Amino acid sequence: MSNNSDNKIVKYRKPLNINIGMVIFAAMFVYIIICIISYFNQKHIVPYEVKAGSLSSNNLYQGIALRNEEIVTAQQAGYINYYAREGERVGVNNLVYTLDESGRLSEYLNSENAGENTLSSEDLHELKSEILGFVSGFSPENFSQLYDFKYNVKGTVLKLANANILENVDKINSAGLADLISFCRAPDTGIVIYSVDGYEELTLDQFTKELFDTKAYEKKQLISNELITAGEPVYKLSKDEDWSIVIHVDADKAQELADLEYVKVKFLRNQDMSWGQVSQYTNPDGDTFVKLTFTNSMITFCTERFIDIELITEEESGLKIPNSAIVEKEFFIVPKEYMTTGGRSGNPGVIREAYTEEGEKTSEFVETTVYGETQTECYLDDSQLRIGDYIIKPESQETEVISKRGSLKGVYNVNKGYADFKQINILYDNDEYSIVKPNTQYGLAVYDYIALDASSVVDNEVLNE
């Protein structure tokens, strides 16, 4: 028994050895935890640097293009083949298309008798330009542009191929086709367009809002190698570089544009700018339309009826600030003649009536911040004054009771680490930003820092960024 007792092993407990390093580490750890908790409990203000900028009053509209368009109809029935490219200017008596009464020309063009139709490098360059122009301007929202592009390319290819055949008229004559083919030429100078839509003779006084319904709009594309009958439209000529775009607006907007007489217009498809002359019309239903007349760029949009534009009617420059930084604050309003300076620093303030403990009337200077002024009145901080206080006109016994209040729009300047209200004079604004007048007496200057969200700030609050 004694031997077993002597062999029992007892585990030795190692004493905790606390040294200065552990103490410092623990203190640092606790300090970091306190800082993290304090950081998340504090209100953080995001500053915004004031910079010079401008805003434009941009108005997006989809307008209807009006041009001087003449529809040319077929004089006889037959298979049509076009030789002038759509959007190309032709002169009087220039060949536009041929009519084949028998359909043999179409067979001939597709047969080996016509020989190998190869495109020259010049022709390929024209086709490449067509494709690149479509790719750069295509928008998925206007998928119908894809079909217009398809017909444009098809027309270009047919024109180039057919033109090569026509260069060798002897082959056509030898094939016995000359007497069966009518060579149809342009009756006047103009831009060739291979589509009709019923809007060709539309005038401003015929407009209704239903005309802007693109879902009801129908456009007939005129295609080569189709059999047509006499009297059918074969193409149209846009004969004048002067053209117009008509937009549907409310009466107030129409009057605003009419007062300007000329409006700068941006074409959204290619971002080009042009000035349009304004005229307006109100139909019997009370719908108002504005026509913008241009003297250039018609050929660029000659195949389009509905054109997206942006009106740039107003542009202001100044200090650009976000609308979220703007706040409206109330102040006391006092006549300017009651303002004076005093105190050790000569700061502005007012003289207020006061009473001693014995009830004797006296006066005291109250220093207060001026936040804005008009020709006759000043807007004063209300932290030191109260409704019902009487103030004394300097060098006079006249008094005025403080009762009038008014509000100013402004922002919180945070240059000095606390929220300091600054009045702003808004020149123009939109949904996101405002342009304010720079370098005003009680306002902002370029590179000032303001609170981005004015609703999270109170006056003279010390800020944590």
SSE order and pairing:
Blueprint: H1 2-6, H2 20-41, E1 47-49, E2 51-66, E3 69-73, E4 78-82, E5 89-90, E6 95-100, H3 104-110, H4 121-137, H5 145-166, H6 169-174, E7 181-185, E8 190-193, E9 195-196, E10 220-221, E11 227-228, E12 233-238, E13 243-249, H7 251-260, E14 262-267, E15 273-282, E16 288-294, E17 306-322, E18 327-335, E19 339-342, E20 347-355, E21 361-367, E22 370-373, E23 377-380, E24 390-392, E25 399-401, E26 405-413, E27 420-423, E28 426-429, E29 433-436, E30 449-451
Antiparallel strand pairs: 1-30, 2-13, 2-17, 3-12, 4-6, 4-11, 5-8, 6-7, 8-12, 9-10, 13-16, 14-15, 14-17, 15-16, 17-29, 18-23, 18-26, 19-20, 20-21, 20-24, 22-23, 24-25, 26-27, 28-29
Mean pLDDT: 81
Strand content: 35-45%
Would you count the extended β strands for me?
30
Largest sheet: 6 strands, antiparallel, barrel
Structural category: alpha+beta
The strand order across the widest sheet is 2-13-16-15-14-17
Rounded to the nearest angstrom, the radius of gyration is 41 Å
The number of helical runs is 7
Q: How would you describe the oligomerization state of the chains in this entry? A: single chain
Q: What does this entry look like structurally?
A:
With 465 residues, this protein is an alpha+beta fold. 19% of the residues lie in helices and 37% in strands. The protein has a 6-stranded antiparallel beta barrel. A 5-stranded antiparallel β-sheet has the order 22-23-18-26-27, with no helix packed on it. Strand 24 (390-392) and strand 25 (399-401) form a beta hairpin. Helix 4 packs antiparallel against helix 5. The radius of gyration is 41 Å and the shape is elongated.
